[in-house]
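Appendix B. Raw example, untouched.
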Amino acid sequence: MVASNFRFFPRLLLAGALIGLAGCSPQQGHDIVSQFGNGKPSELFQTSVDRMATLAMRDNLQSLYLLMNKLYLRNPNQLTLSGYLDAATAERQIRIAIEQRQPLPQLGNRRDLAALSYALSPEFRGDRVGAFIYAIGSMLITAHGGRTEFYMTDTLDPLFINNAARNIEKATWMLSQRQDANGVLLLFSNEISEEGSNLSFAVEFGKVVARLDLLAELLDERYRRIGLNYAQSLLLMNFLPVQ
């Protein structure tokens, strides 16, 4: 019975959409149809916050992959340590490991925070670029409940997402400060010199932090409103809707 209702639900939504289109002008109807055509059926099961969280995760991972490419360019010696023939292959393997939640061999079974601490430690001897990006990507997905797409049945904790933003801020600072025994930076990223400045790494990390902060604030407000609505219902002695 439940499965039957689940299959019937998209048809019901489609019927409702068609009825709504009947009351629109031709131009409005065309615009609405175009918007439906650009989306995926699964979006019907996403709230606006779910959709935003999904898009933010997509953009944050893309930012990490861009940073990985830039870090390999700034630290070509790390590509040699990766064991891959070229940067494209290394980046593809790191991306697969992040998105499919696979362990990275050079990090053992370490993930998210444990992997991040190890990747930025002087004791680590592998490809530090790949390990660093993998660790942040793993941490991001963990903070989002182990998912990269979100639907009505999913719950996101704004505290964990806020913590992820703060962790990235700390990791960015550590990236610019950590040195080996000879006083050489473990990884080269931002550069400020007489020849010029390159702060693109800080800018891209800043975008990730900003997206996380915005999502955490929206989630916090959504749950706050749920609590307020419940409190108002108690105050007014209203029964809560059950369907």
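End of appendix B.
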